[in-house]
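It would be a great kindness if you could assist me with a short task in structural biology. I am sending you one protein, given as its amino acid sequence and as whole-number tokens for its backbone shapes. I would ask you to consider whether the tokens describe a fold that such a sequence might reasonably adopt. The full record is reproduced below for your convenience.
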Amino acid sequence: MGEAFSPTAADGDLARARDGDEAAFTRLVRPLRPELHAHCYRMLGSVHDADDALQDALLRAWRGLARFEGRSSLRTWLYAVTTHACLDLAESRGRRMLPMDLGPSSERAVVDGQGPLGDVAWLGPYPDAGPTDGPAGRYERREAVELAFVAALQHLPGNQRAALLLFEVLGFSAAEIAAMMKTSSASVNSALARARRILAEKAPSLDRQRAPRTIGDPRVREIAVGFASALERGDADALIALLTDDVTWSMPPLPHWYRGIAAVADFAVQVPLTRCPSWRYVLTGANGQPAVAFYVGEGAALPHAAWSITVLTLRDERICEIASFLGAEHFAGFGLPAVLPAVRTTGDGGR
């Protein structure tokens, strides 16, 4: 994978940074921050943990820059520093989970059951790449942060997770990874083999085809709008018509989740379509997939508060997985407000 910055400019900033020029160091690492942050998210399954890990990694890099001898590229060295920062954080905070990791699905809607579980480290959504990324960068990030892929990664021990990501996603060789991880190429290859077996068990149907899935694709946008507007209108039939027979719906931090059209339909009718007075929405993108930011209010013309970032997984132009990440804390990372103001007319859904 090519360097993300001009070698000549980078060499000059590297020399200045080694002399203690913090502004030069900032310029040096700025082009690499988005991909390093995405790597942290894949390793840790949380935007907030990714923020912490990257901040720690860049501090380590700044303090240890004098030890960078140039035997590898600066990018490779920064990935090594960042990966170790992620491994340290993962060890202290544990792996991120989805409701599916806690127990079997519920056959009927749980209306007055157990509330949010605050003692579980939940997987979180990841905002899509911004408009400044080129087409190749958007595709690469989309494939590498898909929700099912990141969820499956959380089942791997840290060293296997790191080896798999560095090799399969980032294209480093086994020898380069061995140098990064301070181990042997044989150990890296063994970790890769074990990681691939576990990943195949945890996500046997993981779709890696290059099919259109982003909110910018017209058909995908049409499906996302159909789902969101059906919820907004309270149209159960229209919503259910968009789902596959084996659809799942989960809502971390709630432990309950649903599998199959009957269970999901029962939940949809009993809870969001009945117990929530008014919905508005904003289309967005998360984990390289279509997503909807939902807001709930007491009436159509009243203010609506942030409720969930709902990530949709599609198969054959239907929705096969719905993951609603509840909580206003997710919205800032998507550049979305915590409240949609009151409106005089209805029906625009905040679009």
